[in-house]
Amino acid sequence: MSLRKTSAPDLFSQLWIRTWHGDGDCPEWFPHGLRHSQPCLGYGVLEPLELTLSGSKMSSITAVTGVSLLENLKNGPRLGSEAEARSVVEQICFGVHRIHQMGTVHGALTPFNIVRDDRDCWKLWSVPTGRLELSVNPLDSEWEKPYRSPRVSEGNSPEVADDIYSLGVVFARLLGGGENLGLSDSARRVYELCVNQNSTWRFGAVKDLAGALNPETELLTIDTEGARVARQRGLEAFLQDSPEAALEHWQDALREDWLEFTAYNNAAVCQMRLKKWVEAIGFLEKAYKIYPHHHLVDANIGFCHNKLGDTVARDFWWCRSAELNPHCPLPHRLEAEEAYRGGRFDTALKFLKKALLAEPRDRPSRLLGGKLLKSLGFAKESEAHKAYAERLPEHPFLYEHLLTEKSPPPWSLRLSGKGSSVMERIRVESPSMNWLRKPK
After folding, report:
1. Shortest CA distance to 84 belongs to which of 265, 223, 269, 214?
2. How large is the average pLDDT for residues 171-192?
3. Can you give the pLDDT at residue 20?
4. Do residues 271 and 193 share a domain?
């Protein structure tokens, strides 16, 4: 297993490339599972930009400027005081809680998958690939094996209690490297409630662990179920073509969970429907602070700047959106629509082809194709696009700008190494990588 990083100025970030080499081909079930993986899209979790599977090799590329916990611990056996260790694990709990609320687990909470960003916030890596790490990667005796619960080490599928076990080991390691070092009575109690051999005697939920670390943790004030219900009501109102009501519901969701990435984006789309561009950008900026590398948020920011007449900002955000995920049709279609309105039909056709290549069943792209080809004098082809569009589901205006369960994930999936890599689409500051290998 190896870790390397480089700088990507256009993304305002570093790129981290993690590579795993297994003993054999990855399990047959995993590529299918990746195709249907749902992103977490919440505070504390860093989604990859790209996942590549090729034989026994797996790699992921993630954008974040920071330092991994592995690097921190290699520099010394102890991170800092007990108060600091409590704070670190409490912060990690925000991301783990978000994952558990999706009905899944991380499964590989090791120093290799925890990072401190440039704002001194601790976050998680590798949610979609955590389960595969258990399958293809030989255990490292120092940096992996100790962080896995006994039942996971025996080959069982991880559960919530196993993630809590891993967090307990991380906590002890931050305090000095082992269960017998540097633990106060209070800290030892927390540790024991994480790693008890009987999993039913461990903390029942990550919120309980966070509360034991810090009784005033804001994680206890988050109602993810209440936010989920409000988000669903917002989507139903939007589908009924009522952006005002949808906005109220998505704002209700944010009152229940102020770290809800999806609700910020979707509230912005409602403001876009109401032509309140500045207010929309305000919501999008908050979404960006939670997760700054989502192609749909970038496309929406560009859309608002276009309406405000800032073409330089528009071009930057639409270009970045396409670079982050070329399989999303939205930024290409927005470019095509803008070129069509300006009478630049050749340019419009170029971007429209990219949009349809990304998603042939995108109804707005097909309708635009009908208008564009008619303007170019291709009446038969124009009618074919319009006829195809009529067979596709019709949604309210700007529906494709929303984040829903049907939205494309924020990562590109390259199976058997096929397709262009994000490393080929963006400007990298230095082609020479700074390798950080895991110690053997």
Report:
1. 214
2. 79
3. 75
4. no
